[in-house]
Amino acid sequence: MVRVVHAADLHIDASYAFLTGERLERRREDFLDSLSSILNVCREERADVLVISGDFFDKVNPTNNARYFAHRALRDFTRDVDCRVFIVSGNHDEPKTVHSRSPLDPLGLIKNVRVVSSGKWKHFRLSGGGFDVGLYLRGYDGLKPAVSPFLEPPSPNDDVNVAVVHGSLDRAKSVYDEWSSAFREYAPFSSISCSELGFDYYALGHFHTHQIVSENWGVFCYPGSPQRYSFREAEGEKGVVVLDLEPGFSESNVQFVPLPCRELVVKDVVLDTSMSNLEEVILNEVPVDGGDRLLDVRLMGKVMFDEYKRLRISHLASYLNQYWFAVKIDKLFSVYDPVSEYEFEDLKSINVVEEFKKRMSEKLRVAEEEGNVELKKKYKWMLENGVKLLVEIGGQQDDFEVHSRV
Ligand SMILES: [Mn+2]
Prior knowledge:
Helices cover about 25% and strands about 25% of the residues. By secondary structure, it is of the alpha/beta class.
């Protein structure tokens, strides 16, 4: 039997626009703690192999701090314990240009650590005592992101065969689906396209929710990310899987091991135009028992322009930051201005030029409808020249804060 710990999507060195200074540093430590927890599982379970299916680092240029810690942790681990480590690259830690390297590559210089980056298949054979286990690893291809990792598959010929890739399985679910389908465009493949390949276990990375898709021709498994990478991952357990590879391998050989991670809370507050003193309204609804948890306050609904002007988001954030590890406040509400009878819909992508265009186009449309030739001419002139002027003075930049992905 060969005992494997399968982890993925550690995202070491993740950045968060709403965190700065000491809190950002502490949040980054969470992700390094996950690596330590995973190595501890390997020790406790007496694993022969640790497999990491991509997105070990959050970016192709992690800080030296993160590189140093990861290198030292893996070096110490492989020195102490007889466990081999295999890492493939993911869309986050594989560069998208020809002449650069993955930050994973230096880790491959450590004894007993093997790194497979840049879309090539590599084969390693392990002895299970009486049978052989074949590990077939492929790094994420930064140059051909939309291609199936199994476009040019290897022909596995060991007794138990494992494919290690970073990609989007069609039958798997993602918490990011309702937000954007772009997530699924990275190394997409279907389970049915694998029916003739001959792998027993697919050690997958990319989807952050732990899940197993069992087919007659193999077990597809995402261990999920060990930390809650974004507020979309506030629900469900986080961890790794432990599996015993042996002839006759099935889903029952796979066991999920939950790991501790920082908890995230999402609180929706719905505002409306009848409300005044929004800060007080919001604070009445948001709990202050946060402790070590992260909070995302999602402000929704519609507010009056005058009330919006009085609302101090940074004041609100610094107050709530006393009671939570950190607080992120999302302005998802629209703003209504009764003077102009205009409604600003999307505050996060608001841009002076686009708003001006939208507003003038609407006025132009009404003038056209009413057949008011004089007014139509005026609005047309204002639209053309107004946009030019606004672009000239730098109106293309967002007037509001830039939102991070989280
Ligand atoms: Mn990932």
